[in-house]
Amino acid sequence: MSDFSLTLNEDQLQIQKWIHDFAETVVRPAAEEWDEREEFPWPIVEEAAKIGLYSFDFIAQAMLGDSTALTMPLALEELFWGDAGIGLAIFGSSLAAAGIAGNGTTEQMLEWVPQCYGTPEKVALGAFCVSEPDAGSDVSSLRTRAVYNEAKDEWTLNGTKAWITNGGIADIHVVVATVDPELKGRGQASFVIPPNTPGLSMGQKYKKHGIRASHTSEVVLDDVKIPGSCLLGTKEALDEKLARAREAAKNPEVRSGKQPAMATFEATRPAVGAQAVGVARAAYEYALQYAQERHAFGKPIIMNQSIAFMLADMATQIEAARLMVWRAAWLSRNGGGYKNGEGSMSKLMAGRTAVWVTERAIQILGGYGYTREYPVERWHRDAKIFDIFEGTEQIQQLVISRAISGLRVE
């Protein structure tokens, strides 16, 4: 077990600088263009692949090879400091990778995770498909069905997924589907849909408020047939889990195991929090520089307490959010899991911080901040998603309240 420390080692410091330089020289200069185009920034992702940032090797090192679990949060903070939309385009595949790693066997992880990234010469994408038009926060109500044909050792999937990052343009889709509707969330499993599988198509592409360089769309599954080996985990393990769930329905003292979607989100919440910290930091640093350079009534506006105190609060909130993210990340690897909803606490805090800090940055810039000529307007639009995706603000509160009370708060 690694001791919790705020001191980054030499490798982490080098990674931090490496990604910051990429964010500063490649990502940030392209951010406005791709936000306006509302298209997936293939050239930027290809640049990230060329330097090894967008790769299975980097994800494996950051997610599995780091006993402190701090490498991924610091990497995400730096990249999203550059731009949240492009940052999500680069790291969107990691959610599919996490879904495979969190629910699959070692052999499945080694087979499918590299295919979520491809190679520098031929970049690939991954997509994690959970939400549906009528089931966002309530993942227990998923209608996408997976039916098993034992004679053919084959699964058939039907349904529509909504709000999917890289949906329809990904090479690998990881789909959470219901195998036993009576068990609701406990009757679900995760599946890998290989490239070019017939029956999978892209539905509508969403026109979003923020993170517009990240592709988000529906994924339609129409009699998608996949071999039994594409079930993440084993059929025997799934049957055992379903049996426990049926027993738990009769006897509340029996534990039925985690929902596959929740297992993935628990692992990624500190990472999402780190993304929010990066956006908040970008807005704070820009507002601080502006306040030092902008003069009104014969002096820099930072000399006014109303501005200086806003900046002081912004800096404090960012530091607090980062500390919560780092501690939650460390606990996820070293603390035996979250005891009091620390992962949800970190995402809740960081998301609120990003929204508040970017709003304050607009206030400091005044009318300029409200125009698209200055980036704080874009950062404010980008920040709001952190209150919504991978569990809304209210879902995080629900997770935390259940953790601290030991009761199933509804």
Account of the protein in words:
The chain has helices at residues 10-37, 42-50, 56-63, 71-82, 84-91, 93-103, 106-112, 235-250, 260-293, 305-334, 342-365, 376-383, 393-405, and strands at 126-129, 145-149, 154-165, 172-178, 188-193, 200-205, 216-227, 295-296, 299-300. The chain is an alpha+beta fold. The chain folds into 3 domains: 10-116, Butyryl-Coa Dehydrogenase, subunit A, domain 1, CATH 1.10.540.10; 126-250, Butyryl-CoA Dehydrogenase, subunit A, domain 2 (Beta Barrel); 260-405, Butyryl-CoA Dehydrogenase, subunit A, domain 3 (Up-down Bundle), CATH 1.20.140. The strands form 3 sheets. It has a 4-stranded antiparallel β-sheet with strand order 2-3-7-6, with no helix packed on it. It has a 3-stranded mixed β-sheet with strand order 1-4-5. A two-stranded antiparallel ribbon has the order 8-9. The longest helix is centred in the C-terminal third of the chain and has 34 residues, at 260-293. It is globular and about 80 Å long. The mean pLDDT is 93.
Radius of gyration over all CA atoms, rounded:
22 Å
Compute the number of strand runs. 9
**What is the rounded distance between the termini?**
35 Å
Total separate domains: 3
Mass-distribution shape: globular
* Uncertain ranges: none
Query: What is the CATH superfamily classification of the largest domain?
Result: Butyryl-CoA Dehydrogenase, subunit A, domain 3
Encode the helix/strand succession as letters.
HHHHHHHEEEEEEEHHEEHHHH
Helix content bin: 40-55%
The second-level CATH architecture of the largest domain is Up-down Bundle
Per DSSP, the total helix count is: 13
**Can you list the strand order of the major beta sheet?**
2-3-7-6
The top-level CATH class of the largest domain is: Mainly Alpha
